[in-house]
Design brief:
The protein is an alpha+beta fold and 177 residues long. The protein has one domain (2-176). It has four helices and seven strands, in the order E-E-H-E-E-E-E-E-H-H-H. The strands form two sheets. The protein has a five-stranded mixed beta sheet with strand order 2-3-4-5-6, covered by helices on one side. A two-stranded antiparallel sheet has the order 1-7. Strand 4 (57-71) and strand 5 form a beta hairpin.
């Protein structure tokens, strides 16, 4: 694995694939990603991506699908689920992104988001897919036995746990208005 990264797929902007590209993680890459993201296992990881160009940037639109195994946030029982996450990224050559003054206030447009700067003759699409996977993992995922365990040990759900006292009464009055 290059530079400590678990999923490396280098893409050269000057030789972009003509059609859709499918990136599929190997068993070893899935195991390394599971360790990175602190889940029990990643049984499958696939991303289908399309490329486009605008100015000197490479636009990537795709969908990531994965089968993830992790413990339930309440019971700690193992659960497996499928995740599907669309993503849009913009790879830009180093030095193209504007410098921002740390103390200045500024707004980002939708086009400014998800820009990834790269150096040299290629960018790492695999690392971008790995980071998208990290965002798709739900660290508080609950399995089918979560509600039963809460009830058994007397833990209230968010809906059942209603605040009381003067502040709660003031908030309730505001909600009525």
């Amino acid at each position: 694995m290059t530079e400590g990264r678990e999923l490396v797929r280098l893409v050269k902007p000057r030789a972009l694939p003509a059609g859709a590209l499918t990136v599929e993680a190997s068993e070893a890459e899935c195991a390394a990603l599971a360790q990175r993201f602190s889940v029990t296992a990643i049984h499958a990881l696939k991303a289908k991506v399309d490329f486009d160009e605008k100015d000197d940037a490479v636009l990537v639109d795709g969908t990531l699908t994965a089968t993830i195994e992790q413990p339930c946030a309440v019971t700690r029982d193992s659960l497996t689920y499928k995740a599907s996450e669309p993503f849009s990224l913009c790879f830009v050559p180093a030095g193209r992104m504007p410098e921002y003054d740390e103390d200045a206030e500024f707004e980002l447009s939708e086009e400014d988001l998800d820009e990834i700067e790269y150096e040299g003759g290629s960018f790492d699409l695999g690392e971008a897919i790995a980071q998208t996977l990290g965002l798709a993992i739900d660290p508080y995922r609950e399995g089918p036995g979560a509600d039963a365990l809460r009830e058994k040990v007397g833990i209230e759900t968010d809906e059942e746990a209603r605040p009381t006292g003067p502040m709660a009464e003031a908030l309730a009055a505001l909600k009525k208005e």
